[in-house]
Automatic annotation (TrEMBL):
<dbReference type="InterPro" id="IPR005955">
    <property type="entry name" value="GST_Zeta"/>
</dbReference>
<comment type="similarity">
    <text>Belongs to the GST superfamily. Zeta family.</text>
</comment>
<protein>
    <recommendedName>
        <fullName>Maleylacetoacetate isomerase</fullName>
    </recommendedName>
</protein>
<dbReference type="InterPro" id="IPR036282">
    <property type="entry name" value="Glutathione-S-Trfase_C_sf"/>
</dbReference>
<dbReference type="InterPro" id="IPR036249">
    <property type="entry name" value="Thioredoxin-like_sf"/>
</dbReference>
<dbReference type="InterPro" id="IPR004045">
    <property type="entry name" value="Glutathione_S-Trfase_N"/>
</dbReference>
<dbReference type="GO" id="GO:0016034">
    <property type="term" value="F:maleylacetoacetate isomerase activity"/>
</dbReference>
<dbReference type="GO" id="GO:0006749">
    <property type="term" value="P:glutathione metabolic process"/>
</dbReference>
<feature type="domain" description="GST N-terminal">
    <location>
        <begin position="3"/>
        <end position="84"/>
    </location>
</feature>
<dbReference type="InterPro" id="IPR040079">
    <property type="entry name" value="Glutathione_S-Trfase"/>
</dbReference>
<dbReference type="InterPro" id="IPR034333">
    <property type="entry name" value="GST_Zeta_N"/>
</dbReference>
<dbReference type="InterPro" id="IPR010987">
    <property type="entry name" value="Glutathione-S-Trfase_C-like"/>
</dbReference>
<feature type="domain" description="GST C-terminal">
    <location>
        <begin position="89"/>
        <end position="209"/>
    </location>
</feature>
<dbReference type="Pfam" id="PF13410">
    <property type="entry name" value="GST_C_2"/>
</dbReference>
<dbReference type="Pfam" id="PF02798">
    <property type="entry name" value="GST_N"/>
</dbReference>
<dbReference type="InterPro" id="IPR034330">
    <property type="entry name" value="GST_Zeta_C"/>
</dbReference>
<dbReference type="GO" id="GO:0006559">
    <property type="term" value="P:L-phenylalanine catabolic process"/>
</dbReference>
Length: 213
């Protein structure tokens, strides 16, 4: 039997949260090893020797060290197909991946800590708010053609794993979600599921007690 996967994570990382949701959805037991991004622990020699990008998440699974959340999600899906997070139909799979790309390529990288630190402090929140609002407007439009109970149809997919953590960031930066009714409805359904509850940032071992629910 392969040893338990080890996930290097940070409680407020939306990228790490995507992977946590997928692991819980599939019932995969894992060990969480927190990396405090605020304290710069991702820049330590010990960590960068495993992940030169100095980011989370990083997973050690089946003897492999894999970084980049989308690559991790795809690996988990391919090696552990039970409770699938991708539809069988090729067109629907493409729709899932398109939504994943809209979130993970077009929104999150432009509002993450690394980018915000390059801006004057008084411009950071407005930049993040604008980027997220514009990106979610695109996703909301995409959902017109794909949404059922969740982003693509009536079952949880990788698109939902990526969308829900991004909404945490949206609220953190004060984005008005009133113009995203489909997104809000999907969020409500997802947040009622155990996988999303267990993956929430307030439930992580490195979440400070004063912030946890």
């Amino acid at each position: 039997m392969s040893p338990k996967p080890v996930l290097y994570t940070y409680f407020r990382s939306s990228s790490a949260a995507r992977v946590r949701i997928a692991l819980h959805h599939k019932g995969i037991d894992y060990e969480a090893r927190p990396v405090n991004l605020a304290k710069g622990e991702q820049l330590s020699e010990a960590y960068t020797s495993q992940n030169p990008a100095a980011l989370v998440p990083l997973i050690v699974i089946d003897g492999h060290e894999i970084c980049q959340s989308v690559a991790i999600l795809e690996y988990i899906e391919e090696t552990r197909p039970e409770r699938p997070l991708l539809p069988k139909d090729p067109a629907l799979r493409a729709h899932v991946r398109a939504i994943v790309g809209a979130i993970c390529s077009d929104i999150q990288p432009l509002q993450n800590l690394r980018v915000l630190k390059t801006l004057p402090e008084d411009q950071r929140e407005e930049h993040a708010r604008t980027v997220i609002a514009q990106g979610l407007a695109v996703v909301e439009k995409m959902l017109e053609a794909t949404a059922g109970a969740f982003c693509v149809g009536d079952k949880v997919t990788l698109a939902d794993c990526c969308l829900i953590p991004q909404l945490v960031n949206a609220r953190r930066f004060g984005v008005d979600l009133c113009r995203c009714p489909r997104i809000q409805a999907i969020e409500a359904r997802a947040n009622a599921l155990d996988a999303f509850k267990k993956a929430h940032w307030t439930q992580q071992p490195d979440c400070p007690a004063e912030l946890s629910l």
